[in-house]
Specification:
Blueprint (H helix, E strand, L loop, with lengths): L1 E7 L2 E7 L1 H10 L7 H17 L8 H13 L2 H13 L2
Antiparallel strand pairs: 1-2
Helix pairs in contact: 1-2, 1-3
Length: 90
């Protein structure tokens, strides 16, 4: 597990991603996994996702961000199919 410390409103929280997921996301972001640059890039990406969906009362932040990371690294056709499926089932 890799941990990233981000801000949620006025509080700080820790987000945990599996090693494989954080490595895939680092590659997607154009960095070499396992480097300080990769850690910073993933942390900044996670923070940007949270900021873009500003909800300071959000719960299960780590799980929500892990879901967002999976959707970011999967094939766009598959993530599009998933989005369509979700819309049909809400």
């Amino acid at each position: 597990m890799n941990q990233f410390h981000i801000r949620l409103g006025t509080r700080r929280t820790t987000v945990s991603l599996t090693g494989v997921l954080s490595e895939l996301l680092a590659l997607k972001l154009g960095t070499t996994p396992g480097t300080p640059e990769a850690h910073s890039a993933v942390k900044e990406w996670l923070q940007a996702q949270l900021d873009a969906h500003s909800d300071p009362g959000r719960v299960r932040v780590s799980q929500w961000l892990a879901d967002q990371a999976v959707l970011a690294v999967v094939d766009k056709d598959l993530s599009g199919q998933y989005d369509e499926w979700v819309l049909r089932h809400i």
